[in-house]
Write a structure and sequence with these properties.
Layout lengths: L19 H7 L8 E4 L3 E4 H17 L7 E5 L4 H12 L3 E4 L6 H11 L3 E5 L3 H7 L9 E4 L12 E4 H7 L14 E6 L9 E5 H16 L12 E2 L8 H4 L1 H8 L2 E4 L5 H10 L4 E4 L1 H8 L13 E4 L6 H9 L3 E7 L6 E4 L11 H8 L4 E2 L4 E5 L14 E6 L11 H7 L5 E9 L5 E6 L4 E3 L2 E3 L1 H8 L5 E11 L3 E10 L7 H13 L11 E4 L13 H9 L1
Parallel strand pairs: 1-11, 3-4, 3-5, 4-8, 5-6, 6-7, 10-11, 12-13, 13-14, 24-25
Antiparallel strand pairs: 1-2, 8-9, 14-15, 15-16, 17-18, 18-19, 19-20, 21-22, 23-24
Helix pairs in contact: 1-9, 2-3, 4-5, 7-9, 12-13
Length: about 550
């Protein structure tokens, strides 16, 4: 059971707890008339946001939700989700952001494991909930959320419709003080083996993470800055580690926010242009989809700043974005890290470099953000020199890392062995504190006694003029233990061959960038590369399909 300790009144000096309610309160200080926009359907200002959050708190209370109860959400990116980001933890309950892209069996597991007491669901996900209804350990009542005029008739236990419940609720609510270390959010990782694992974060951690994001994007003189006059649109699902925490920071800053709902290329581009969006974050897949659109080449995108995370930013994609005027950089983190650990930093001299030199910096993993301590260590936890060559695992300490996996004691010990959180990512660090991930530990290709980085190979192949997307994995080989295997999506209307790409890679062998064993002996051409539920390349699936 996730506990919330309500603090009693006292006549002593006030011990200021870092609670999510402080973030929302600050939204009314500077630009409260800025708008929160949903597709082409609704728009309201921060006064109304605060009012709706208070109404939602009363709805939750009337539904019997109290401190420590877990509230599940199945919803697209919307202002409704933003309201739940605040109202649920602000009454002392725990927000479970359900990954609707998981399989029904995995969604069932996460809801039972979290012991959800109620679920707020978009009507699009009712078939999913119906399919698992009989196997839920408790009957979970539903609050429906929809953009449609008519609600569906349904067999599930429906406790009301979101907007109707808000209309009938009081807009007065006095949010209590409680222990800042109380759990605020719960999220399940998309594990490659076994069931998803639950990570959780406290109010204190989320407030500190928000402040660190505001500092790194607002204080330092670099590229892709995020200020109060920006227009923010997330392109990372809000179920995934609080959309990288940016909605909390954006709300604290009072920026204009645009929520696209279900991701549809036409709607995304329309909002991007009509609302003059200036700041977004996404995985490479989403940026690739937008950059590849014919519309992107016909409009001005020079006002748009994009942070790429969740997977490495390929040099080819970075170049395509920069040529369209998009200010693209890299951020890095994990579900376990709340998530941001590093962000690209480019000083004045860096910003004067030619495009290829800039791409080299923009595609690195980045520099640790304020209050984040990162090391690259060897197998004995010995820190490696910052020489840009020595490769080891990234381990981390920050005030916002998950303290353990919920109900997973053994996995938690492994995660935190040696007093640092282990990321499973292999990287080097240079003298400027730039980290560069060379691979996941599990994805390093071991061939003929040599270690080859699948990420480096993907980056090099992406530079080929006919390559749109690429994935590289290691596959079994009787002679060499493993060999690199590449899947390539050609650019529309262009043709290439395995031999052409292998010949293209030979130049990087000749200049010493890679050794000759790194050139894939097999390259297959496909229309799409398998992705996980959060848009990352699904290398486990690629290896399994190759084996079959």
């Amino acid at each position: 059971m996730l506990k919330t300790k309500i603090l009693p009144s006292t006549e002593e000096a006030y011990a200021y707890p870092l609670l999510i309610k402080r973030i929302l309160a600050d939204s009314l200080k500077y630009e409260p008339n800025n708008e929160i926009i949903y597709r082409d359907l609704t728009r309201y200002n921060y006064f109304e946001l605060n009012k709706r959050v208070r109404k939602l708190a009363n709805v939750l209370k009337n539904l019997g939700i109290g401190a420590g109860d877990v509230v599940a959400v199945l919803e697209y990116d919307s202002p409704r989700y933003l309201e739940l980001y605040f109202a649920v933890p602000m009454i002392g309950a725990v927000l479970h952001t359900v990954n609707y892209r998981l399989s029904p069996g995995q969604v069932l597991y996460t809801m039972n494991h979290a012991e959800d007491k109620i679920v707020f669901t978009n009507t699009d996900f009712l078939p999913l909930l119906k399919s698992i209804k009989e196997k839920l350990t408790v009957s979970v009542p539903c609050i429906l959320m929809t953009d449609k005029e008519e609600l569906p008739e349904d067999e599930l236990t429906i406790s009301g419709e979101y907007e109707e419940l808000l209309r009938s609720a009081s807009d007065q609510y006095d949010f209590p003080d409680f222990d800042e270390n109380s759990v605020a959010t719960l999220f399940y990782t998309t594990g490659t083996t076994g069931n998803p694992k639950a990570v959780y974060f406290s109010h204190r951690q989320l407030v500190l993470h928000s402040l660190a994001e505001m500092i790194v994007f607002g204080v330092y003189d670099s590229v892709a800055r995020f200020h109060s006059n920006d227009v923010y649109m997330p392109l990372t699902p809000m179920f995934h580690v609080h959309a990288w925490g940016v909605p909390y920071a954006a709300t604290m800053m009072g920026v204009k926010q645009v929520y696209p709902g279900r991701y549809e290329p036409e709607m995304l581009l329309r909002l991007l242009l009509s609302e003059k969006v200036t700041f977004s974050h996404c995985v490479p897949t989403i940026l690739h989809m937008l950059v590849s659109s014919p519309v992107a080449k016909a409009v001005d995108l020079s006002h748009w700043k994009v942070v790429i995370g969740g997977a490495a930013l390929p040099a080819g994609l970075a170049k395509a974005a920069l040529q369209l005027g998009i200010d693209v950089i890299t951020g890095y983190g994990m579900s376990e890290t709340c998530p941001v650990l590093t962000v690209t930093y480019m000083n004045e001299a860096d910003r004067k470099l030619d495009i290829d030199k800039q791409i080299e910096l923009r595609t690195k993993t980045g520099v640790p953000i304020p209050l984040a301590e990162l090391l690259a260590v060897d197998e004995n936890m010995k820190p490696l020199p910052k020489d840009g060559e020595s490769v080891g695992e990234i381990v981390a300490r920050t005030p916002w890392l998950t303290q353990s996996y919920y109900k997973e004691e053994e996995h938690s010990k492994e995660l935190w062995r040696g007093g640092y959180l282990h990321t499973g990512d292999v990287a080097y660090v240079d003298e400027r504190n730039f980290f560069k991930i060379t691979d996941r530990i599990k994805d390093v290709i071991k061939t003929g006694g040599e270690w080859i980085s699948s990420l480096e190979l993907e980056n090099l192949i992406s530079k080929h003029s006919s390559v749109s997307e690429v994935a590289v994995v290691g596959v079994p080989d009787l002679k060499w233990s493993e060999r690199p295997y590449a899947l390539v999506v050609p650019k529309e209307g262009e043709e290439t061959s395995a031999e052409d790409i292998q010949q293209f890679l030979q130049q990087f062998v000749d200049n010493g960038t890679i050794n000759k064993w790194a050139i894939p002996s097999r390259i297959d051409f496909v229309s799409a590369i398998p992705k996980t539920s959060v848009g990352k390349i699904d290398k486990k699936r690629i290896r399994a399909e190759y084996k079959e």
